[in-house]
Amino acid sequence: KILVAASEVAPFVKEGGLADVTGALSAALSVKGHDVRLVLPRYHQIDPKKYKLTKRKETLSVPMGVIGTVEASIMEGKLPGTSVPSRRAGEPVIVYFIENEYFFGRPGGLYSTIDGDGYMDNDNRFTFFSRATIELCRELKFSPDCIHVNDWHTAALPIFLNTAYRGDPIVGNCATLLTIHNMQHQGEFYEGLMDVLGIGWEHFNYLGLERDGKTNLLKGGIYHSTLVNTVSESYAREIQTPEFGMNLDGVLRERAADLCGILNGVDYENWSPEDDPLIASTYSLDKLANKALCKADMQRTFGLPEREDVPVIGIVSRLVKQKGIDILAEAICGLLELDIQIVLLGAGEVWAHFFYGDMPNRYKGKFGCYIGYDNTLAHKIEAGADFFLMPSRFEPCGLNQMYSMRYGTIPIVRATGGLNDTVENLNEAENTGTGFKFYDITAEALSNTVGWAIYTYYNRKDLMEGLIQRAMKKRFTWADAAEKYEALYIRAIEKRLG
């Protein structure tokens, strides 16, 4: 019995890759016959009619320390696409929605206002969600064997289980697994959050929730979870170092024996060139010539000359420092002196909107840009580009490099985290590999590696053909990931009960 708690789950609500992971993993686990249930907040964006949600319980009392008792209500639905046999006579994955109009009925985003500022009470919002999840289990008399929590938003849940609910007959023996999707976001708030948690100030110390005089929920979750994992093997190693640990590397080194990496899977039902409805022409390894139709369509869409003979580099990214877009900005003018085209789709930091938004005017016919996000354009770029560039400073897993390989679009990546684990560098002597990698986070390293890829495109057709063949055959499935998570749940249960 597995309960997955997350602040976002696709297709109900999504702001990042976390939503894709929680939805797809839950579906894959249910295929393996487990009793999988999901719980998430019922934000105002989630339409009960669209997903045929029903009221499960009108009033659920949730203790909130000095705030007092806060009431929630519970809605119930099913995860779309999961009508598969399981232990429960073929029922799909059940999804519970925690409702509270004050905390989750807001018109802005999941975590921030319409203006982009984080909600001032995010600490209370997700403390409430975590504790409501436990109270839901007690109300339903549902005792999960393992509760799988994700990032800081649900990191309070293992803290509660190890303290306020340690002896509870329903949830007291539940194992917990904390998945860290990004160390950068830790849920660090003022010290008074301890009074809202209501677990006692003795846990506000360097071996508990305290960091630099503040309450750090992720830190507490790392200490209190039965096991911890992150979304690639390389990232699991990297976060134990000062460079990537975001000041929690020491905590993670202490839990090193209980920390591992499991690579995310890809939803190949939505990302496959054989049957993608959003691209100009479907294609496969056997009909690879049709990729040229996608390239021409993408060039038209971005106002670039339709040239089949020019290499096109695609970028779909959040325009933030983590993604290396500042390093790209240093290198891009030099790159555009080459006979190439670049298309970029993304949004993020304001300076990047102005800088990249002006590039089509400065380099007419060589640079195409759309500031914002558009799913159709993302698919067109994956299918139409020859290369896909990801110069990330750090990348816990990354999905676009895996999408790109499926579409025969060769990734050029910085060798970090999941990018390092999924992309094999080209070996020219043996004609092996699936992409191009660089190691230093510098404009020079980026430029040199892009130059290597462009040279290969123009002068080594044999190597390019090999790269495309091998890349398109690679698979990173959720079935494989689910098998590894299954083993991790069993290990966590044994550790908790042992």
Give a brief rundown of this model.
The chain is of the alpha/beta class and 498 residues long.
Residues in helix, %: 25-40%
- Which strands sit side by side, in order, in the main sheet? 3-4-5-2-1-6-7-11-12
Distance between the termini: 18 Å
User: Structural class, please?
Assistant: alpha/beta
Instruction: Count the beta strands.
Output: 18
**Sheet with the most strands?**
9 strands, mixed
Average pLDDT score: 95
Q: Per the principal axes of the C-alpha atoms, what is the gross shape?
A: elongated
Unreliable stretches, pLDDT < 50, 5 or more residues? Answer: 84-90
Number of helices: 17
Fraction of residues in β-strands? 15-25%
Rg (C-alpha, Å)? 23 Å
Which characteristics define this entry?
17 helices; 36% helix; alpha/beta; nine-stranded mixed beta sheet; 498 residues
How would you characterize the overall build of this protein?
It is a single chain. This protein has 17 helices and 18 strands. β14 (341-346), α11 and β15 form a beta-alpha-beta unit. It has 498 residues and is of the alpha/beta class. The radius of gyration is 23 Å and the shape is elongated. A 9-stranded mixed β-sheet has the order 3-4-5-2-1-6-7-11-12. It has helices at 17-31, 101-104, 122-140, 156-162, 193-197, 217-224, 233-238, 249-254, 291-301, 325-335, 350-362, 375-384, 400-406, 417-422, 443-459, 461-473, 478-497, and strands at 2-5, 36-41, 54-63, 69-78, 94-99, 146-150, 175-180, 188-189, 210-211, 214-216, 227-230, 259-261, 312-316, 341-346, 367-371, 387-390, 410-414, 436-438.
